[in-house]
Design brief:
This protein is an alpha/beta fold and 211 residues long. 27% of the residues lie in helices and 26% in strands. The chain is built from six helices and nine strands, in the order βββαβββαααβαβαβ. It has a five-stranded parallel β-sheet with strand order 6-7-8-3-9, sandwiched between helices. A four-stranded antiparallel β-sheet has the order 2-1-4-5, covered by helices on one side.
Length: 211
């Protein structure tokens, strides 16, 4: 999947978070979005996946060289972020089965295989609300990374993970990212070290005279 941003900007009230964003995220490439905390990385990610509408400019999604209708974008995107909640009243097994109703998995992975990937066999019937923050983050990551989508977006993916979780994340990336377009927003090098290009959000926060 390709994403094309033409003069995109986002503001809240009278404050511009960023503007004059002209970028082309090309199919199959891996990108890191960098910048200090509070600089707008997550806001840009939400715009890229269609969760937010830009205040100015246009974003276009292309699949196999053809423009993708905005209401079809969700089918081609998987997204994990600390601020995206899981349904805490569901058990682990129910949560995975619910996700599978909306998105197929890579390699046709089944619920049992995903639970094995998580190494959560003892928590199969436990409600997600009783999970630790690290366990919840692992669940979000495995559902996003293992979904069969053309675009994978990860915002601060190793938040709440310990060293074992870091190693688990890296193994998951190595095995399941493949040739998809990937965008990672983070300041932690471990999160994005597999990316081959970077975008600094600060480049789009500089005010232009007369604009």
């Amino acid at each position: 999947m390709d994403l094309l941003l033409n003069n995109v900007g986002k503001r809240y009230r009278f404050d511009w978070i960023f503007r004059h964003v002209n970028l082309h995220f090309k199919e199959g490439n891996k990108y890191a979005i960098l910048g200090p905390n509070g600089s707008g990385k997550s806001t840009l990610m939400k715009i890229l996946c269609g969760h937010l509408t830009p205040s100015k400019g246009k974003i276009e999604f292309q699949k196999n060289g053809s423009k993708l209708l905005i209401d079809k974008v969700y089918q081609s995107v998987s997204y994990a972020a600390p601020y995206i909640d899981v349904i805490e009243e569901l058990t682990l097994e129910e949560s995975i089965n619910f996700h599978l109703k909306f998105k197929p998995m890579l390699n046709n992975l089944k619920t049992d295989e995903l639970i094995d990937l998580l190494d959560f066999s003892k928590s199969r019937n436990k409600e997600v609300r009783f999970f630790s923050s690290g366990m919840k983050q692992r669940l979000k990551l495995v559902l996003a990374i293992c979904s069969n989508t053309e675009l994978l977006m990860l915002d601060e993916p190793t938040t709440n993970l310990d060293q074992q979780g870091f190693d688990w994340y890296q193994k998951l990336i190595d095995e399941y990212v493949g040739n998809r377009t990937v965008i990672v927003a983070s300041n932690v090098e471990m999160d994005y070290r597999f990316c081959d290009e970077s975008v600094n959000i600060m480049d789009f926060k500089k005010k232009k005279e007369g604009k």
